[in-house]
Design goal:
6 helices, 0% strand
Length: 94
């Protein structure tokens, strides 16, 4: 049941709210985030939303380190969902 719930698609309103929540202070982070939403925004899952929310709780510098692969998730955010979203955000080309 948990996997089914994680793969359920987000509604348009929820996706729009999440996208707004993902705005950051560093333009470098925004570039990664905008590219992610351009590629995956029309089919976001609840699992991806949870992962993005966890990532957005980080400071801008910690998030940039993860996005640039200078560090890897540790502690509470070292979940499969977060690692999968990070991989998608790090993709250079579709």
């Amino acid at each position: 049941m948990q996997e089914e719930e994680s793969s359920a698609l987000l509604g348009e309103r929820e996706a729009a709210v999440l996208r707004w929540r993902c705005r950051r202070g560093l333009v470098e982070n925004d570039l990664f985030i905008e590219r992610f939403f351009a590629r995956h925004g029309d089919r976001l899952t609840l699992g991806q939303a949870r992962a993005l929310t966890a990532l957005m709780d980080l400071s801008d510098n910690d998030l940039l380190d993860l996005l640039m692969a200078r560090s890897e998730p540790t502690g509470d955010i070292a979940t499969d969902e977060v690692k999968a979203v990070l991989a998608q955000m790090r993709e250079r080309s579709a």
